[in-house]
Amino acid sequence: MSRLWGLAPMEAEPEPAGGAEGETFEAPGVSSFDLPPIFPGVPWFDKYILQAIVAVILVLIFWLVMANKNKMVPSKGQFIGETAYFFVRNSIARDTLGHDFKRFLPFLIALFSFILVNNLWGIFPFTLLPTASHAGWAYGMAAMVWFLYNGVGIAKHGFFGYLKNTTLPSGVPVFMWPLIIPLEFFSNIVVRPVTLALRLFANMFAGHLLVLVFVLGGEFLIFHGGSIVNVTAGVVAWIFSMAIFALEIFVQSLQAFIFTVLTAVYLSSALAEEH
Amino acid sequence: MLPLELTGSLGIVGYGLGAIGPGIGVGLIFASVIQGTARQPEARGAMMGTAWIGFAVTEALAIIGIALAFVFGGL
User: Fold this and answer.
1) CA nearest B48: which of B35, B30, B61, B60?
2) Which of A26, A89, A111, A274 gets the highest tally of CB atoms within 10 A of its CB?
3) For residue range A157-178, what is the model confidence (pLDDT) as tens digits?
4) Binary contact (B64, A91; C-beta < 8 A)
5) Could you tell me if residue A3 is inside a domain?
């Protein structure tokens, strides 16, 4: 719970029921995500922020290298960069934003690559922790998107024009206005950033928790389980955790894609003339 | 033999129940995409774009469910 809201104090976790064999298995839970700071005495500098900084550096280096020294006949490296660029440009930006997509392309590419790298930290062997599994990162990125799409809409239509545009679909009869306007306001202004953040966070959180359950549970069964049945079950859990990792690769890439697509959709609906 | 004793949070059961609806919804979305692709394979790209957005919006219900499971987990 404290993970979700970042403010509430951590509630006491109920102790898991003791196993038959002496030692008890402490199930991974919300507290598994509270990591100690890397340097003692610098409480804000934990693994999450280190990963995010490294991700920014990696993304920056990647796009700087890719943007320089482009040739008419692309090399292999340039081909990778162009494929990544065209993926965001064609299948995310141009399809949803229409002819006006070039203004937002840098933002969408930065967003996509930053989220992708940060999610893939969850399967990278030396980190094994997606950055967005700490809710604050997802909230920050969704807040950025919220300010951007509202700001873009207000800049285009004016404040009241934008409000009218987002909260009142055209063609609604007058007697329906008291029902439609609060609903549309709620769904377009309030719920959108919340679901955007929670989707990214909850996917990363749940995926990492799944990996923890399989790997830590398997470890306990193998080394503290005792009987041969438990050891076999632990080995099976470890093997199956590889399948979970494969699923995680898919989910992490998909979430980076969906976050960017939804950003583009929100931008295009803020820019739209008529609903 | 000990009688079965369960401890834990009812919020998790509630999340399980709440995930039924989005599960059906996501299944319906991709069932339609598969059908549409079978009928008209060249329209697959256009359908997938819409399908991912629909998937994300439907999935949001399950995501809100897991968030509320943690929020009300202490009850």
Assistant:
1) B30
2) A111
3) 999 999 988 888 888 889 989 9
4) no
5) no
Residue at A167 is within a domain = yes
- Chain segment A41-70, per-residue pLDDT in tens: 888 888 999 999 999 999 999 999 888 877
Nearest 5°: the CA angle A71, A76, A80 is: 95
Structural domains present in chain B: 10-74 (1.20.20.10)
Count structural domains, chain A.
1
Long-range CB pairs of A65-71 (<8 Å, 24+ gap) are: none
Interface pTM, i.e. ipTM = 0.76
Partner-chain residue, chosen from A1, A14, A198, that has the shortest CB–CB distance to B64:
A198
Interface of A with B (CB under 8 A): 1, 3-5, 11, 14, 17, 30, 91, 95-96, 195, 198-199, 202-203, 206, 254, 257-258, 261-262, 265
Please, what is the Cα angle at A211 between A209 and A217, to 5 degrees? Answer: 95
